[in-house]
User: Which sequence fits this backbone?
């Protein structure tokens, strides 16, 4: 058998192995790919941007020398639907948005708006004054303003250049 025939034969054998899953590793690889595709589709938000599964409702945290401010988008909710609690250094926000009931006599209904319960928690830093928290709700935005304890907080450490 010539060298060319041996190479062709090995190539045909390799091609068959690649086309037909023949052992547990091929099955495992296929299953891993299937599950990864499933999780990617669950993380995808059809409206674009971050997925609702990852973080709903959306929340921003900002900080200045006097306050830590948390803003959370909760459209379609009212203040009575939301609860804010502090336990130790953990700030917990939970709420429920009810689906509006609609009777449809025309057939198919399509829902993309989210309804249900949420729970978000934030670990507060040591310099947060948990006895000085103000909450307000306006136009679907919950805003919490958390006071800072004077004299505490992160301190900038100067870095000197090596000689």
Assistant:
């Amino acid at each position: 058998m010539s060298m060319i025939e041996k190479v062709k034969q090995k190539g045909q054998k390799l091609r068959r192995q690649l086309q037909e899953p023949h052992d547990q590793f091929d099955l495992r690889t296929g299953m891993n790919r299937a599950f990864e595709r499933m999780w990617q589709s669950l993380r995808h938000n059809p409206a674009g941007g971050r997925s609702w599964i990852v973080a709903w409702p959306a929340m921003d945290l900002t900080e200045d020398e006097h306050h830590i401010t948390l803003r959370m988008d909760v459209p379609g909710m009212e203040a009575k639907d939301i609860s804010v609690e502090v336990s130790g250094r953990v700030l917990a926000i939970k709420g429920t948005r009810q689906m509006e009931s609609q009777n449809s006599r025309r057939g198919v209904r399509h829902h993309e708006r989210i309804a249900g319960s949420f729970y978000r928690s934030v670990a507060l830093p040591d310099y947060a004054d948990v006895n000085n928290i103000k909450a307000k709700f306006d136009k679907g935005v919950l805003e919490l303003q958390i006071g800072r304890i004077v004299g505490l907080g992160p301190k900038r450490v100067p870095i000197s250049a090596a000689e």
Summary: The first strand starts at residue 59 and ends at 63.
